[in-house]
Amino acid sequence: MAIKSLLMAASLGVAIWQMAPGLAAAGTLQAGDQANRVAQAAPGGRDRTAVCPPSALARVTRHRIQSGETLEAIAEQYNLVAPTLLRLNPSLQNGLPLGQEILVPPFNGIVVTVPRGQTWEQVANQYQSRADVLFESNGCQATVPERIFVPGLTWLTRGTAIAAAEGTPSPSSSPVRGYPLPQETRILTAYGWQPDPIEARLVFNTGVTLAAPPGTAVIAAGDGTVAFAGQDGVYGNLVVINHQQGLQTRYANLASVAVAVGQSVRQGNSLGTIAEESAETSFLFFEVRRNSDLGWIAQDPQDYIPALAIR
Fold first, then answer.
1. Mean pLDDT on 207-232
2. Which of 253, 229, 275 shows the shortest CA–CA distance to 10?
3. In the chain, where are the structural domains located?
4. Which of these CATH numbers, 3.40.630.30, 3.40.50.720, 1.10.3470.10, 3.10.350.10, describes 61-104?
5. Exposed e or buried b for every residue in 134-171, given b needs 16+ CB within 10 A?
6. Rounded to 5 degrees, what are φ and ψ at 303?
7. Quick one: 12 exposed, middle or buried, by C-beta within 10 A (0-12, 13-18, 19+)?
8. Phi then psi for 4, rounded to 5 degrees?
9. Handedness of CA 30, 34, 39, 41 (dihedral sign)
10. Considering only CA atoms, which of 297, 12, 301 is closest in space to residue 158?
11. Does the pTM exceed 0.85?
12. % of the chain at pLDDT higher than 70
C-alpha cells in the first residue's frame, strides 16, 4: 500500500477525543495476539514491559474544583468529555462542591472491574477494544488486574445486547446494511485503534478505508436523508446520510457528489464517485456513527455490514 494512501487514510480517520497519548508502538501487539505473551523478553535482551508507559490508573491526577467551574469546562481543560469525569467521580452527579478534589484520567475512558482469570483478549471483546491497547494502557501486565482502564468512548453508546433488552433495534436489524461500493474490495485501514504511520503511538480510526479505482461509484449503505453534500476541510468531498434508529453514514474522498442536502436516498443509490488520484492511492473512507448526547459517535462498520470485517 502506498505511503500517500496511508497518510490520507490516517488524516481522515483519527478521532482526537479517543486517542490514547503515550502508547508506544514499540510495545504494541498485533491485533488478535494473546496479550499475556508480550511480557517475554524482546530482541536484544530488553523486557518489553520496560518500554511501556505507566498504566492509565497510575497517571490519574487530581483537580480541585474552583468557584464558577462547570463539569464541561473542567473536562475541556484536560481534553476530555464530561461523561468520563462523571464515571470516575460518581458524586459529581449531585453537583460540584467548591474545593473538592476530583480524579482526572490521562485520556477518555472508563474504569472497570474484571473477573479473575480473564485474558486481555476476552476483556477486549467485552468492551469492543483491542487486546494490545488494553495491555499498554494498563502498564503491560501479563495478568489482567482486577481494576483496569478501558480507553475510548464506545461505552457512550448502547451495545447490541443492551439495545435488544431495552427494545431498541440491534445493528443486525438496522437500516444500514448495504456495502458502500458496487462490489467488495480490499480494506486498507480498519476501524479502531491502529499504529500511526508517522508517529510512535496508537490512534483511533473512526471508519474503514476501502481500496477502489478512480471513478468507482459510491452507493448508499441504506435508506435515509442527505444531511451534508460537498467539500469538507478534513474529509474532502463528503456525503453524510442520516438514517433511522439514530444512525448516520459518511462517505469521504469523493471526486464528484451526485446528491443534495435534504434529498431522500434509497439503499444502492449512487452518491458520487471515487476521487481521481491513482490506482494505488484511490479509496473510499466510510464511517457509521450513532447519535448521542455528545454528538455522532463512531461505530464499528462491521457490526452493521459484515462484509467490512477483516478476514
1. 95
2. 253
3. 61-104, 171-308
4. 3.10.350.10
5. bbbbbbbbeebeeebbbbbbbbbbebeeebeeeeeebb
6. -70, -20
7. buried
8. -60, -40
9. negative
10. 297
11. no
12. 73
CA 35 to chain centre: 20
3-state secondary structure of 26: helix
**CATH for 171-308, options being 3.30.420.140, 3.40.720.10, 2.70.70.10, 1.20.120.330:** 2.70.70.10
Residue 98 near residue 67 (C-beta atoms within 8 A): yes
What phi and psi values does residue 297 have, to the nearest 5 degrees?
A: -95, 130
pLDDT tens column, 223-259: 999 999 999 988 999 999 999 999 999 999 999 999 9
Say whether 245 sits in a helix, a strand or coil.
coil
d(CA 290, CA 205): 15
CA distance linking residue 75 with residue 81, whole number of Å: 5
- Which residues have CB under 8 Å from 56's CB, separation 6+? 20, 105, 106, 107, 109, 137, 138, 149, 151
Q: What is the separation, in whole angstroms, between the first and last Cα of the chain?
A: 18
Burial of 58 (0-12, 13-18, 19+ CB in 10 A): exposed
Q: List, in sequence order, the alpha helices (H) in 145-216.
A: 160-165
DSSP string, 84-110: HHHHH-GGGGG---TT-EEEE-SSSEE
Task: Tell me the C-alpha distance between 1 and 74, whole Å.
Answer: 42
The residue type of 186 is: R
Residue 209's pLDDT band, with cuts at 50, 70 and 90, is very high
